[in-house]
Amino acid sequence: MPLVFIAAAALAGCSVTDGDTIRCGDERIRFLGVDAPDDPSNSRCRPVPKPGAICDRQRAEASKEALQRTMTGPLSIERVGVDPYGRTLALVYVQGRSLSCRQIEAGQAVYVARWDQDGRVARECPRAVASWQGWR
């Protein structure tokens, strides 16, 4: 899939859904290799939390807010596939820095190796991935 650059002016068309997903127009984009906490009202958390789901309203809100603060400038999106829910799987960058890595480093998402196609996130921020001692 092609690498796409979204100009800063187009950021108004992109919004943060949660700590690991954004929406740009009609496209939902899920960050590669990470999982952020979910609001308990999310389908991953109800009626019973799915295995591995992080269901915590305060952490979910903090993760979403942290991502919103980092989306300051042009985005570049490297699409790598589509997940079972129809979301684009992608590496998303702001100012040349991976948002997956930023969320891990800020303690706002956990690294999930099975969701990291070809270990791409692990190669981009190996220290953050190796040292992650988060809440999962």
From TrEMBL:
What superkingdom does the record give? Bacteria
Domain called TNase-like: residue spans? 28-117
Name-wise, this protein is Nuclease
- Origin organism is Sphingobium cupriresistens LL01
